[in-house]
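User: quick one, sequence for these tokens?
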């Protein structure tokens, strides 16, 4: 059983502080990979909770592999996001205050194969990013758009 599921057995739907890792993956045309969640129907980058004792970058790489089948090469820290705007209530009623560590990657390999957490995927130019983003990822995407064009040092 994973860490969050174990905690939920004790606290029910009460708010938890959750550390998560996600990756903004760009293709050769600088389009962003987004996945559509099966539980909420919202879009977001691959990512998820960091497990006990897991290094954050390892969690980010694991989540990308589990959710997309892609293997990451070099990735860089994009930012750390927290605060009341990252509060989220999952469709099942679980409440979380997210602390999200976000990476940026242009170096990846493989073919996208979704797991059951997502129903669709797509590469999106910044102007075409869907409006129905998962609420806690919205501040991340806004920062991403503000950072464009990305400098070579960022990538």
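Assistant:
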């Amino acid at each position: 059983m994973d860490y969050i599921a174990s905690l939920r057995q004790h606290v029910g739907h009460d708010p938890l502080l959750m550390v998560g890792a996600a990756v903004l993956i760009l293709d050769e045309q600088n389009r962003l990979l987004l996945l559509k969640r099966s539980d909420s129907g919202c879009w977001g980058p691959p990512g998820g909770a960091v497990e006990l004792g897991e290094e954050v970058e390892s969690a980010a790489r694991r989540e990308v592999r589990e959710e997309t089948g892609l293997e990451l090469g070099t990735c860089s820290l994009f930012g750390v996001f927290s605060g009341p705007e990252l509060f989220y209530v999952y469709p099942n009623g679980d409440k979380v205050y997210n602390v999200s560590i976000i990476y940026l990657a242009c170096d990846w390999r493989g073919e996208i194969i979704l797991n059951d957490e997502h129903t669709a995927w797509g590469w999106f130019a910044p102007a075409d990013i869907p409006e129905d983003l998962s609420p806690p990822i919205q501040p991340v995407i806004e920062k991403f758009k503000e950072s464009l064009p990305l400098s070579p040092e960022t990538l």
